[in-house]
Each structure stands twice: as C-alpha cells, then as structure tokens.
Specification:
This protein has four helices and nine strands, in the order αβββααβαβββββ. By secondary structure, the chain is of the alpha+beta class. The protein is elongated and about 60 Å long. 30% of the residues lie in helices and 31% in strands. The strands form three sheets. The chain has a four-stranded antiparallel sheet with strand order 4-7-8-9, covered by helices on one side. The chain has a domain at 106-203.
C-alpha cells in the first residue's frame, strides 16, 4: 500500500504532462481547420480548371492551370482564355443553366407556393404569385465556383451555383410580390434534398 501511494503522484503528473503535449500538438491542426483551406499562388494542384476562393490577400478566385512546370494554382483575375481553355470551359454566355419555362404539377406548385409564402411573409411582402418556373441543370448549377470562357484572348469569367451536392433537383421560381425597394419580383432558388424542399437563395434575375 505504501509503494502504491508513492507512485500515485508520479502517475498523475505523467498523465498531466501527456495531456499537455497532446493539446499543444492538436492546436495547429484545429487552427488550420477553423481558418479553412485557401491555396497559394504557385503551389501545385491536381485538377485543371478547378476553382477555389482565395484569401483576401491572395487573389479573389484561384484556378488550377497548367504552366511549364505542371499544374499550379494561379490568380484567375489575371488569366485570359487561349484556344485550349476556350475548348474545355463552358461559354459564359451559355443559355443552358435552366430549362425553358415549364408547367409544374399541382403538387409542386403547392410546395413552391407554401415556401414562397413563408419566405415573403417574413419580409412583409405578401401577397405573392408564382409566374414562372425553370428547372436547374445540375451539372452547371451545383454549388461552388464554375469557371467559364468569355472567348479567346478575353479574361476568364465565373458564376456560382446554388444546388448543394446532395440535392437531386433544383428550380428557379419567379415570384411576384408586393412592391419593394428592389422591385416586385424575385427568382427563388429551390432545391429538393431527399424528400424535403427548401429555399437556398433568391436573386433579382435567373
């Protein structure tokens, strides 16, 4: 019993020291996760034409491009489209982000009306009326930065999608509402995730 009591302070001290070492080693990892990942200009990348937001001091949008030394992150704001990029990137004037206006089923119309009513009720902009629905093309409107070509020798362009990766469908729903400072209509961005529908954004144009 005497030997055990003599060992207890040593064991407690050793455990405290080990805990301190583990905590110190985890801090840099936690800090990196909390700050998020932002590539550095000139660092290597693996997927040509992939784009990511850069830090405020490291370019607005970073794009993975091939140079003499391989694939590198570059500041998109300084790049122009050459023949190669113009051939692999979608055109910025692409008119295929959405289907032509569609006639939705009564069930869909009921769902969209319920969501729109709740959205505009919070903003005191009732009554509302849905006047047009277009279906989103998922490959173009999945969330993230989508880079496009404005033509050879012209600066690159980009747009942002609104459909989460786990969304199966998306729509742009033009809704008329009570007059406000920005007009009397908005395009609600609605998605279906599993069996649920939700508004993920709103824009003054499609």
């Amino acid at each position: 019993m005497r030997n055990q009591s003599n060992l207890e302070p040593f064991i407690i001290g050793w455990c405290l020291a080990l805990s301190l070492v583990l905590a110190i080693s985890v801090l840099p990892m936690a800090e990196a996760v909390s700050k998020g990942y932002s590539p550095q200009i000139g660092s290597t990348c693996s997927k040509e034409a992939q784009a990511l937001p850069g830090s405020p001091t490291n370019g607005g949008v970073m794009i993975c491009m091939k140079d003499k030394s391989g694939l590198r992150w570059q500041d998109m704001g300084s790049l122009v489209a050459d023949a190669h990029l113009n051939s692999i990137l979608p055109k910025c004037a692409l008119d295929a982000f959405y289907s032509p206006p569609i006639k939705v089923s009564p069930d869909h119309l009921k769902i969209f009306t319920r969501l729109a009513t709740a959205y505009f009720s919070k903003r005191h902009l009732l009554p509302i009326k849905i006047v047009q629905v277009r279906k989103a093309v998922k490959k173009y409107l999945t969330t993230g930065i989508q880079v496009c070509s404005t033509g050879v020798t012209a600066l690159l362009g980009a747009w942002s999608g609104f459909m989460p990766l786990n969304a199966s469908e998306g729509w742009s729903v033009r809704t008329m509402h009570k007059m406000a400072g920005f007009g009397n209509s908005l395009f609600l961005q609605i998605v279906k995730i599993g069996s649920s529908y939700k508004i993920v954004g709103a824009a003054t144009s499609p």
